[in-house]
Structure formats: C-alpha cells, structure tokens
Protein 1
Amino acid sequence: MESTSHLSFLKQANPQMYGELSSIIDSGDFAQAHRSYFDLCRHVKKKVNLASFEFQLPSPLTIKGFAKIKNALKPELIQQAREILDQSLVEQQGKAFPIEGLSEEFKAMAEESLVFHKCATPHSQSLVQMQDIIKSSLVSEIVEIVEGTLKTNFYVNHFMLSRTFPTPQPVGSFAWHRDAAPFSQVHVMFYLTDSGENGEYGATELLPVGATRWIEKETGYNFVEIKARVNELSDLTKDQNILNQIERPSMNAGDALVFAAPQVLHRGIPPQTGYRDALLLVLQPSILPWDQMLERTGVSYMASRVLGHLNLMINPADP
Ligand SMILES: O=C(O)CCC(=O)C(=O)O
Ligand SMILES: [Fe+2]
C-alpha cells in the first residue's frame, strides 16, 4: 500500500482521513473503502480548489446519466486503436481475455459472451501506443463532464478494446444491466466504427437515471445477476412513459458515450452485420488529475483489469 502513488499523496494531504481509509482498506471491505475514498478525493479537491465547482452547471451525468460527445477521437487514433485490436485478436486466436481466476459466474458469462464479444489484451509493445491514444482521447469536454459530476479528479482505472459480432443470443453486457461497480464509476465508450442510423452496426441503449430509479423502485430490478438479466425492458414494465425514454444514440466512429454505468440501465446492441469496434475507458475518482496519474503509472497495470466489473473487489487506492 505504501508504494501506491496517490495513497502517499493522500497521506500528506490529510493524515487523519488517510488513517481512516487505510484501516477500512486493511479490513478488506472494499465497497466501503470505495465510498470513503471518494469522500476523501472530494474533500481534498474542495480544499485545494475552493468553490470552483459552485458555479458549474449541473452535469448531464447527474441529470440524465449519460452524454454523447462528438468527434472525441481523431481518425488516426481510431485507426491505431483498431490495428492494436486486430493484432491482439489474431494473436489470441479468438480466445480473448484470460478467464482463469474469475468467479464461476464471471467465467460462465465470459465464455458465453466470448462467442460474439471479443476483448483484446494488447501486446506489451502496444502499450506505449495505448497510453498515447488514451491521453489524446480524454478531450476537455469529457474531462469537464466527469470532473463536474464527481466534483473531484478521476483516473483511468482500466481500458478495454472490444470487437462485437452479430449474435442471436445477446448476453452479459448485451442484456439490460447496471454495472455492479463503485457508484462513482464512469464509463467512456469510444466508438471505433459507425453505429449506423438505427444501430444496425452495433450500438448502446440507455435509460435515463430517473426512469432507471423508477424501474428499481417499482420492479426491484437493479444489479441483477447475469443469468437473470432481461433482453427487453418491456418484460419488466408496460409503462410507455418509461419505455419511451430508452435512447439508442447514433454514433460515428470517434464519438464517445460517457455514462454513469452503475446508475443507468443500459445494454450493448450487437451489430446485425459486420462488427462493432470500441474502446472503453473505466474512470474512478482520484486525488491527482488523470493526466498526472497516467504519466506516473503508465497503462501496463490495466492489462490485468480487462474485466473491470470486479472493481468492487479492488483496493480503491491502487495504483
Ligand atoms: O457494449 C456496450 O455498448 C455496453 C457496454 C457496457 O455495458 C459498459 O461499458 O458498462
Ligand atoms: Fe455495463
């Protein structure tokens, strides 16, 4: 724990809160640790940057839970990311990510999802390039939304490069779900291919945060296990006022979808033909700003986090 860079920064910033957080982490209650850690990040930010958030407009993530940012990733970076994906999938021969060490439930999901949803584990030689891509991808519009929502800094917890093919059986993140992750987790999904006007080449559907809460209250559907996920929300409710709120943003390659994954119901839509390529960044609160963190840590540690859905079991102060 001592070696982790932002935890030692925290120690200087607020020894008392650091002490409290350390003992929670040592107790192994990572869910609680994520909450305390988030509080602490906000506390430090507020002290450093007094009242700078007071004048900000409410974030679209707070109001709706998601936002689309156009042209976040430049064409040459899209191409680079897709080349890394191509290469990685060839090397893995369709095996995608390592599933050893996962719980039985995740193993089952991974195996079922792997049939149509391939996740790359980039070669170590590609990691420098990945770092550059990530650095350029977090444009100011995205940074402002995320920082304005969290009211503190964030860091890139991990990235995932994926290629999704047509399937008659959409499962895992292709059925309706909320990610069972720390509440403050934000996902940024860069489309590397076009979705098509109606999502025919692969898309994402989301339900705004208000309607998601309504579903939770009325039906109890929230962080349901993988096998119990529904493919259609109409299986949960016939209320048109809710169902009409489902959105399927039309995405061009380079556009980004920023969303509060634990707070809004969402699902991937597999393509009808061809395949969908995407780069997902999973963000979490941080003491230091994301670019400083990226500079300090690099991206190699992220390779072991391809299945970041396990984040509740990861020390929030790591790296
Ligand atoms: O593949 C998609 O469009 C959805 C991704 C997703 O569920 C997530 O990033 O949490
Ligand atoms: Fe998700």
Note: Residues 58-310 form a domain with the Jelly Rolls fold (CATH 2.60.120.620).
Protein 2
Amino acid sequence: MKLDLMGNNIGDAKVVLLLVLLVCSLCSGRVCAVDVHASIKNMLGNGNMMSIHCQSKDNDLGNQTVSDGSEFGWDFSPNVWGTTLFYCDLDWKNVSDFYFDAYAFARDSVRCKTLCSWLVSGEGMYGFNEGTGLWEFMYNWPS
Ligand SMILES: *[C@@H]1O[C@H](CO)[C@@H](O)[C@H](O)[C@H]1NC(C)=O
Ligand SMILES: *[C@@H]1O[C@H](CO)[C@@H](O)[C@H](O)[C@H]1NC(C)=O
C-alpha cells in the first residue's frame, strides 16, 4: 500500500478522483443535470407593484420590478455538490427588505425538482410542492 503525504491510500484516492471526473463529465454533458425553473408571481392585487432582487453566489439577477399579476422567473441547474442557493430580497407597499430563499438545495431538491414556483400575496408567500402537487403557505410577512 502506498501512502501519500496526508497518509491516504493512493489507490483509493485514484478511484475517488476517477468517480468525481466521471460524474462531472456526465453532468457537463447534461446527462444528469436537471434544469429547474424558478418563478415568483405577484398576486398582491389592487395594482400593487413589488420589487424583487434574487442572487446566488455566482449570479445576480438584478432588482426587478414586477407588476400586479406578472411574474419574474429564471432557469438554473443545481450544482452536483448540493450547495445551490438563490436568496431574494423583496419589497412591496406593506413590506420592505423581506429576505427568503427561493431555492435551497437541502430544502428543495425534492419539493422543487424542476419547478420552484412562488406566489406573493397579501397574507404572505405560497410555494408549490412538486412532491405533493400542493401549494403550501411558506412565509408570513413580518408584523
Ligand atoms: C429596487 O430598487 C428600488 C428603487 O431604487 C428600491 O426602492 C427597492 O427597495 C429595490 N428593491 C430591492 C428588492 O432591492
Ligand atoms: C397593507 O397595509 C394597509 C395599511 O396598514 C392595510 O390596510 C392593508 O390591509 C395591508 N394590505 C394587506 C394586503 O395586508
């Protein structure tokens, strides 16, 4: 058995490296990459506008103004490390600087397998659960 400087078995390390390379090449070839569509819809009513600013570590989607009845959406592929996170800052007439996670892999890899849809309403935010096919009340506005 050969050991490297860290004391790891070099044979095992080679196998792990090979597996990582295999997974990466499959994913970059889009075989195992799953595209997710995220969308956030303004259902506030009464002509209320909202502004929303979402970002991840690598992408800043900008500050978007969304009119009553419209939605803002984007597509992404969760990374193979399971660390994908899109967080948003939302403002509307009654609420300012409300932070929420639009997509967090640990919470959403099953709940939002391909669709991560949100409804912004006067009482709070609803999220669509693809696993159950139900809209769930996810966030209360701060009082
Ligand atoms: C977006 O920009 C407007 C105008 O500058 C600002 O009032 C609002 O707070 C911003 N919204 C977010 C979510 O950053
Ligand atoms: C927003 O705030 C106003 C004034 O406090 C209140 O009358 C109204 O019901 C609120 N709107 C919603 C949708 O909660």
Note: The mean pLDDT is 88.
